[in-house]
Amino acid sequence: MDKVERKTLVEQVYSQMEKKIHDNEWQIGSKIPNETELMKQFGISRNTLREAVRALVHVGLLTTKQGEGTFVTHSDELNAILQRRLSKSTLADILDVRHALDKEAAVLACARYTDEDMLEMEKWMHACRAAVADGELDSFVDADISLHISVVKAAHNSLLLTLYTNIVEQMKISIEKTVSLADDYTIGHQQLIRAIKVRDQEAAMQEIDHYIHTFKKRI
Questions:
Q1: 127-136, 141-150, 182-191: least confident range
Q2: Which CATH architecture has domain 9-75?
Q3: Longest dimension (CA), the chain
Q4: 172: which of 21, 41, 51, 185 is 20 to 30 A away, CA to CA?
């Protein structure tokens, strides 16, 4: 592997190691090479390597286990930071942020969705209805989350998608505990997708308000 030039060595090693994680060369859950191998690979001192590793541990990409080694925990720095911050937040706070993101996503989706996006949204809308008809709570929760993510994808904003998927992942257990297989959810989904389809931003936002308000009453 390329040896680094002496400039800001810690930053350069950090970037190269981060790239290995991002490119999945070092996969999540895997143990990274030992210090001797990495020192040789990058042509650096032990102190420089340890500073870079500490920085990666600090942002949550790596974790060090005493007597075992250093392991990859996340593949993206923003995801790692968000997960750490969200884990310390209350469900009510997370839900407030989700509400804002859902509404912004719906507005953007109204303006930006493609035919493929609409097919994806309608697919998950039908999956929600099928899960309700079958009384399958787990399937409904998965379809419900996938539906909202499909709306966010239709907004065509990669940062919004990253923020949203992290928040929903934190909320999944709470969703499973509080969701009810009631018609108000699937009706809301139908109306939400219908509003997006005709590019009615006001109606789409109203449907998001209804959905979140219903959810808040159950937590």
A1: 182-191
A2: Orthogonal Bundle (1.10)
A3: 64
A4: 21
Asked whether 92 and 219 are in contact (CB, 8 A), the reply is yes
Exposure string for 6-26, b = 16+ CB within 10 A, e = fewer = eeebbebbbebbbebbeeeeb
d(CA 61, CA 82) in angstroms, rounded, equals 12
Every domain of the chain and the residues it spans: 9-75, 79-217
CA 215 to CA 82: how far, in whole Å?
A: 23
Exposure class string for 56-76: b at 16+ Cβ within 10 A, else e = beebbbbeeeeeeebebbbbb
| Those residues with Cβ within 8 angstroms of residue 60's Cβ, 6 or more apart along the chain or in another chain | 73, 74, 77, 80, 81, 83, 84
Closest listed residue to residue 47, CA positions, set 10, 5, 101: 10
| AA letter at 85 | R
Task: Kindly report the CATH class assigned to 79-217.
Answer: mainly alpha
Residue 6 has pLDDT above 50, yes or no: no
Q: pLDDT tens across 24-75, in order?
A: 899 888 999 999 999 999 999 999 999 999 988 887 789 898 889 999 987 6
β-partners of residue 71 are 31, 63
Residues 6+ apart with CB under 8 A from 168: 98, 145, 148, 149
Reduced to 3 states (helix: H, G, I; strand: E, B; else coil), residue 34 is coil
CA distance 175 to 169: 10
Q: Which residues of 88-104 are buried (b: 16+ CB within 10 A; e: fewer)?
A: eeebeebbeebbebbbb
